[in-house]
Predict the structure.
Amino acid sequence: MNERSVAQLIVEPSPHVTAGNSVRGMMRDVLVALVPAGAGSLFFFGWRAGLVVAVCGAAAVLAERICNLLRRRQSTVGDLSALVTGVLLAFTLPVGIPLWMAALGAAVGVVFAKQLFGGLGFNIWNPALVGRAFLQISFQQQLSRFAVDGVASTSVSGVSGATPLGILKHFPEQAAAIPPAPVLAFGWHGSSLGESSEILLVLGFLYLMARRQVMPLIPLAFIGTVVAVTAVVAPAHLGVYLLSGGLFLGALYMATDPVTSPVSPRGKLLFGVGCGLLTVLIRFWGAYPEGVCFSILIMNTLVPLIDRVTVRKPFGVGRRAS
Amino acid sequence: MTASFRGGIHPRSEKRARLYRLEPVQTPPRVVLHLAQHAGAAAEPVVKPGDQVLRGQQVAKPSGFISSAVHASVSGTVKAIEPWPHPATGERLPAIVIESDGANRTVDAGVPKYRDYYRHDRAAIIAVLQEAGVVGLGGAMFPTHVKLGPPAGKEVDVLLVNGCECEPFLTCDDKLMQEDTAAIFDGIRIAMHVLDAGRAVVAVEENKPEAIDRMRAGAAKVANVEVRPVPVRYPQGAEKQLIAQVLGREVPSGGLPIDVGVVVHNVATLAAVSRAIMHGIPLTERAVTITGDIQRHGNFIVPMGTVLSDLVKILNMDTAAIRRVVFGGPMMGVAQGTWDVPTVKGTSGIVLLRAEEPVPSGPCVRCGKCVMVCPMGLMPNFLSVYVERERWDDAARFRPLDCIECGCCAYVCVSRRPIVAQVRRAKAILRARKTKTT
């Protein structure tokens, strides 16, 4: 009828309405979910915790932007995934880490684990954990110095700087110095920044579930496997193994990274169980006191295989036409 | 039985047009009748430019068994047989253009009236339906006489009557169930007779309480017909999902409802069956929901082939802000590139949206939301990625041919990927391959 409106009609394939979901919205929800644990880290470790988070976040975003420019792509900073990587990396670091080291870890994670693979969606390994693994291997000493402002160092006096898992690994005779389970769950103990309070981490995860951004399959399988094996191997310290390491941070926020975990529900279960088994393997029989980081990275590697063997059976397949 | 299907979504219902009763529109100045208004072979014109035609007169005849007739929906003069945009494909396809004389003189179309349908056998009745141009009005436009004449050896025990209307925005079936209940039940009885089906189940989504009440009142007068309210969940009205929900039967992959003893008909189709068989009235008009970002919502009885630009004028609508025109519902409907597009028999709704600019799509982040909502149990994320990389063998492993194109995956996608369009592409390529190898 009139030429103007004819030219203006937008033709796109169906559907013509959407739920309005976006990567940015998903990442924003993750950041919100991390707020309680982040606030907890300020409370437990003091203002420097905030500084480490800010430096890691800024370094990750800057690294992402520079990669965008080098690859002549539009900025992907706005999808917030780099910021999430930075914050998650900070959560795995001890509060006393030199800031340049923290920044380096964030940049390594973003550049080598993500951008070199093609950016968000194409990476095989969780970028934050690659950053963490890089730091752990390169700067072993600084990464295991968990000296903290006041509280935790006094409660684990004599082995100032060791986490409860470190105590069990290297100074088992001092196990009595480890705080009781409720204190561990609350977060009052030596640990990296964001992993200390299981209560606050779970709180954030419940928010993510309420926002329908994540399913609890991987965390349940992961934590469940760790609990089951630990109950057999070290029943006396079950609470410590459950509540004092990086288990909840890793199971709730790292292993659930959609890009680097399986897609199907069965695949997620398999992945979670694998993470749990590798974690206890490293904890009890490996060189490190904690195995969450490396177990997730190893399982990340297996995701394409898991995806291949966990294809869902579609509706109506296997039924014979009469 | 409390069976169900996996997945599905709960889009905002947006059924504002439910407040408006069915209302005939003024006769349009012209109608454009596509020869392809049904699945199968296009109809063959039996008129030529210059001919005078009456409303209800056949202007194109079926060209095979899987084909159907087309009738003039106004009285007037045949102006041309020429290509027009088709609302289902966007292509320009041949159509008969009739200029209305405004008189709406109606012919007794010559379709026999079988008020005593139960004295007539299947062959006689399906012949009438084909001549009357009755096709599936739910949107797929599959010729109704074909579905009512299943091949020998296929037993039907249940007629499933689809009154779900699970698409957002659409309300015409809801209104039809309330206002044309008797015709629907006549259609149900005819279909049960023809199919020799022992019982019928009418499925209506729970968000249509008035329709459920009216249909229950209607069902009380007919033996072996039950009205079953079903949960509100898109795509509840999709054949395979509805059968799973109501009967707990799983239609095999690549199969049809008849493979599990079921035939599904939409309520509007059954009303059209009753008009054709009981009253000899061919299919020349239908209820169309017109709604969206406009002031004048409604459920209008629209002559087939009414051109949208004419319709907008007749209804005196302000469409200045409209940027998207969708024929059908917003989940499965087709966006139109022009206002000069005629309605066809499957046009259940016209949704006019102001709508934002298209959002660019991003790489898949494997969030798995599409997997959780897919009612066919597919993994749309892998299909999407493999189509993007044109890796057809890998795409085939994820069974694109099982996809019903309901759009749940794209609806929830955080990267706004055009998954449905990608799956359609995979289907086309794989089908072409199949025919090449056989």
Remarks:
- The longest helix of chain B spans residues 419-437.
- Residues 361 and 416 of chain B are 5 Å apart (CA to CA).
